[in-house]
């Protein structure tokens, strides 16, 4: 049992524009930084994310009934630059980066190489709800004529439902949505596991704020906050950062989870997420760590060698719905999980950390869904990675070489 | 348009047992080799695949409604041995391998480190249908008391359907099934792409034979033939080989495809697979190569940078249902696709090749399903791999950096 230490709950938010019109939003831990006023001095040309509609495309895969994103322009994206050319470090005189300010706490900006873009302005002119503890000001997301035209061309049905009969084999849609980058710290050589609990709270405020802001944009059905960590899974920038995607459809995994939760409720049971957490608490064998507001466990049917789910004890549909206490208690627990993963291998393993949230603006789904974070270590033993080969990539069948109870035990003993 | 050259259609099949009781089946291109009579001189101890029931487990993932295989004993499997210790080369005096004979054409044997095992004897005492052109003899698969007990403990419902109410959160089943290894050639330094069309025909006969044989075993619902190629996706043995899995459930991807095909038919359309092939033929932009009996194209919604689907022109549900002409014409076309992939990068890229077949013994599914092979290159550019990170592994959303029409064009020009 870990006692949650209460980090500062106040976050000061301010937003500006990069040279090509992309939005940048600072989440400061103290007031008056003036960072959003610092001008981006770069000449980024005309091919800006803000000025153009999506040049990616959604294509319908008729064999499995899912949308695939075809995003060719990303082949040119920045690939493992040397540390002194990191685009995620604060700008220094003579070396402007993606972040014009000379320092930052947490900063979010629109991805320069987005696979989804052009989402419309918030339906609510106020620009969406900000997290309960977030202060500062925000402007509504702008939309340009080009993005408007792309949206107009995007006829019903919305992506995420099946296309009409005439398009059942070949449906395509502009890949409308939004891709943002979240920098967790200005310190290039740090990592999420080495943040303070107070900083994790600030990151959580940023995630919650962006979930709310993107969730009310036209064309976005679901907001996804995640971190890819480690070159082994293709991370192209070492600076500690994560990503936020606003998808124009409900993702396959989320749709599956909602289908399961609905079937479970229809079967006369309670809430699937509540019952799963209750079941793990009563079993106990796979609990890695917990505090008053969060529980972390290895799922009984873990797919990854070291996979940990973090659920808030009180179910909420998404990050903006988290109460102040749960927000304060999160950092302590998540850092504990990450440090246990580090301890397991003697060094930080490559991992994927994924926030599962209810689709935006879907009242029925919100009443059923249970927010949770899923951390998946790609490493299965020192020097050995888990690959997604023939069974996983071909058939969707996961084979896990590590028994979940053994994984939980090793994680319990790893600190 | 490639003219199919007719390779020898006759295959001589014979089977024996390895030292620990595992079955080994030779598919010879000429009669009288006597290979199945060569004794395995190794002392492999008591922990044999044939003697034991499954020590892996299926666990139900209640959040998405799928079975996961927990297969801990595989952590000890052979990992990139030096070439002179390759377990897939023929045995030499003083160096026995998994293949007792001193040479072979194509050979199949039960995996020594299976994630699924203990499938029951064929329901048909004759041991299942062999491919039309396959000759030789085979014995029905044996089953031992231990496997029998595991099967008896495996109460209804079968894996692959949802578990009963009392187990909705925690269902487990013994991981019954079968894992086989297919060696494509005795030449350690070769690769599938360098086989002759005649040899590919022999491999196809082996795949068809095993699909029929495993498909009638008790506990097996679906047979999956595939090849993982390249260290980049975790291949632990370089000798040219593939794998065959007999799953105790219909795999998630297959279930999805059947669901789509059924919805398409219910919507008043024809057969989804037929219409997809017709649509690709009439569009033409993504066709890579074809002959009288097969067509190879990049799907419009390709998920992998270089992904090619191979469909027989005349739809069949599975490999055993392929006619003699289609069997003869396959090697030429598939080798052409593989050599084009090699040509793209100047060297063979890592890939996954996956055969999609109708579930075994399901008449309705067999009448709807369209057999096809899917080749997925994991490489997206020289030195750059496609990783399954946050969007793919976390949400099931695929983002492809290569436009499928461009991929098809490059493959068209690659020879």
Describe this structure in words.
- The structure is a homodimer of 415-residue chains.
- Chain A is of the alpha+beta class and 415 residues long.
- An 11-stranded antiparallel sheet of chain A has the order 1-2-5-7-9-8-13-14-12-11-10, sandwiched between helices. A 3-stranded antiparallel sheet of chain A has the order 4-3-6.
- Chain A is globular and about 60 Å long.
- Chain A is built from 8 helices and 17 strands.
- In chain A, helix 2 packs across helix 5.
- The interface between A and B is large, with 83 and 82 residues.
- Strand 17 of chain A pairs parallel with strand 4 of chain B.
The helical percent of chain A reads 10-25%
What coarse outline of chain A follows from CA principal-axis ratios? globular
**Helix and strand composition category of chain A:** alpha+beta
According to DSSP, the number of beta strands of chain A is 17
Strand order of the largest sheet of chain A: 1-2-5-7-9-8-13-14-12-11-10
* Fraction of residues in β-strands of chain A: 15-25%
Distance between the termini of chain A: 13 Å
Largest interface: A-B, 83 and 82 residues
Oligomeric category: homodimer
Low-confidence stretches of chain A: 1-7, 124-158
H-E string of chain A: EEEEEHEEHEEHHEEEHEHEEEHEH
Radius of gyration of chain A: 21 Å
- What would the average pLDDT of chain A be, to the nearest integer? 86
Count the helices of chain A. How many?
A: 8
């Amino acid at each position: 049992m870990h006692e949650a230490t209460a980090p500062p709950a106040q976050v000061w938010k301010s937003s500006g524009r990069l040279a090509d019109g992309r939005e940048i939003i600072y989440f400061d831990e103290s007031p008056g930084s003036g960072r959003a006023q610092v001008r981006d001095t770069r000449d980024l040309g005309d091919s800006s994310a803000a000025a153009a509609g999506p040049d990616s495309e959604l294509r319908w895969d008729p064999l499995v009934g899912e949308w695939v994103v075809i995003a060719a322009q990303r082949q040119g994206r920045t690939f493992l630059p040397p540390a002194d050319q990191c685009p995620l470090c604060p700008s220094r005189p003579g070396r402007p980066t993606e972040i014009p300010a000379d320092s930052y706490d947490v900063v979010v900006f629109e991805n320069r190489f987005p696979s989804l873009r052009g989402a419309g302005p918030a339906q609510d002119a106020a620009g969406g709800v900000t997290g309960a503890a977030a202060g500062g000001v925000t402007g509504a997301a702008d939309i340009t004529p080009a993005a408007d035209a792309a949206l107009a061309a995007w006829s019903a049905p919305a992506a995420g439902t099946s296309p009409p009969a005439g398009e059942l084999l070949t449906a395509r849609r502009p890949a409308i949505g939004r891709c943002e980058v979240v920098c967790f710290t200005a310190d290039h050589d740090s990592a999420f596991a080495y943040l303070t609990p107070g900083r994790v709270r600030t990151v959580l405020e940023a995630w919650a704020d962006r979930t709310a802001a993107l969730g009310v944009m036209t064309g976005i059905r679901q907001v996804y906050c995640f971190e890819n960590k480690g070159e082994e899974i293709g991370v192209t920038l070492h600076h500690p950062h994560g990503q936020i995607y606003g998808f124009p459809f409900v993702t396959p995994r989320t749709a599956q989870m909602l289908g399961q939760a609905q079937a479970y409720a229809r079967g006369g049971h309670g809430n699937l997420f509540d019952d799963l957490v209750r079941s793990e608490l009563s079993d106990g064998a796979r609990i890695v760590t917990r505090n008053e507001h969060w529980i972390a466990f290895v799922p009984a049917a873990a797919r990854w060698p070291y996979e940990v789910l973090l659920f808030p004890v009180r179910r909420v549909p998404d990050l903006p719905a988290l109460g102040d206490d749960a927000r304060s208690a999160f950092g302590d627990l998540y850092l504990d999980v990450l440090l246990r993963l580090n301890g397991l291998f003697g060094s930080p393993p490559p991992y994927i950390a994924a926030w599962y949230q209810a689709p935006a603006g879907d009242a029925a789904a919100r009443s059923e869904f249970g927010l949770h974070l899923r951390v998946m270590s790609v490493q299965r033993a020192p020097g050995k990675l888990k690959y997604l080969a023939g069974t996983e990539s071909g058939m969707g069948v996961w084979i896990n070489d590590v028994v979940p109870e053994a994984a939980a035990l090793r994680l319990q003993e790893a600190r």
